[in-house]
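Figure 3 (text version): structure tokens given as input.
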């Protein structure tokens, strides 16, 4: 699955790299935002409380959105860090698909 160490590795590689146009503190901020979004997606996937399920829905929508109008959208953050948003999105989906399928079968998550 997509675990914390893998998330850390993906984000660290992006932040430490030179791809994309973000630099310095902006790059650090965007890396933190990406890390938080991925971690919320993964960590709150199995949430039982409504508050945590709400956090999962928010992270899910952020990762799944293909909108690029918003400065802090998933697509724009990935672009600024030199990451292919489609590739990362597919990686997250594929790594979490078995859990998401089980959740969807056991309860309504939306």
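Below: residues designed for each position.
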């Amino acid at each position: 699955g997509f675990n914390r160490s893998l998330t850390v590795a993906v984000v660290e590689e992006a932040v430490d790299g030179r791809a994309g146009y973000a630099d310095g503190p902006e790059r650090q901020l965007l890396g933190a935002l990406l890390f938080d979004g991925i971690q919320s997606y993964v960590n709150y996937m199995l949430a039982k409380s409504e508050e945590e399920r709400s956090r999962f829905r928010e992270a899910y929508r952020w990762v799944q959105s293909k909108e690029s109008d918003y400065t802090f959208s998933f697509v724009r953050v990935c672009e600024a860090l030199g990451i292919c948003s489609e590739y990362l999105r597919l990686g997250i989906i594929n790594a979490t698909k078995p859990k998401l399928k089980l959740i969807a079968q056991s309860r309504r998550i939306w």
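Residues 57 and 89 are 15 Å apart (CA to CA).
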